[in-house]
Amino acid sequence: MLRQKLSFIPFAITLAFSILLVGCSGSDSGVGTSGETGTLEVQMHDAPANYEEVNIFVKSVEVNNADTDTGWVVINEPQQTYDLLELTNGATTVLGSKELETGTYEQIRLIVKVDQSYIVVDGKSHNLFVPGGNETGVKLPVNAEIKPDITYTLLLDFDAARSVVERGNEQSGISYLLQPVISASNQAETGNIAGTVEPVDANPFVYAIAADDTLSSTKADTSDGSFKLIGLEEGTYTVSVDPTNDTYQASDTSGVDVTVDKTNELGTIQLSQN
What we know:
- The structure is a single chain.
- The chain is mostly beta strands.
- The protein has two domains: 18-180, Sandwich (Immunoglobulin-like), CATH 2.60.40; 190-270, Immunoglobulin-like.
- It has one helix spanning 160-163; strands at residues 14-15, 18-21, 37-47, 53-64, 72-76, 80-83, 93-101, 103-113, 118-121, 124-129, 135-146, 151-159, 164-169, 173-178, 182-186, 190-198, 204-210, 213-219, 226-233, 235-243, 251-258, 263-270.
- Strand 13 (164-169) and strand 14 (173-178) form a beta hairpin.
- The protein is globular.
- It starts with 13 loop residues before the first strand and ends with a strand.
């Protein structure tokens, strides 16, 4: 079971989202007129969850350079299913990249096709239900500043553990709801923490914590115990290792510094047996 730390809401720019019907289609209006351009690249990664697969079908990725619900610009139309659980431990996927007029883009949204999104539990597939409709858009403020001839990489952390909600009753059985929880950061303003946990069979979850907030989490690689926590703001963290194998004790490493554009290599964290 995932450690209770996942219930904390991260600081920085983790935000609540609005669920929009896909009927609000994208538009290329509202783009600046300076004539200068830069590039916006959108990448996605994920926090771990106790499921076998969490598959999300992304129809399109759009940004908006206004503080209203107009001026949407389509970055890409992947029309593709992503298994979020393949995007842990430092792995990312590029959702799209586009050359844009310079300026600040206030919002981003993912158009998700829910009737092609599903979860796998105990070898069985279950549809993900979103209240309000089968096709939804998820948007959040990002304030991405596009500068001339520069690539701005926006890193989206899709938290599968908190985004999938299990519901059930005696009449309908268990069902799963998708209530997306995503944080966003400018990759150029973040750093990483990496290391290895031994013994490998501890099979632990690893968390980066500041004060009472869990800001990043992953699961150590099951083959060699390596882990990587990415997209962290500059600061000092506690790295908490929580084994799923009850034979081993949890371990906390405090005072772990993160510097922008650097990876703090912790080396090997050796867990003790109970």
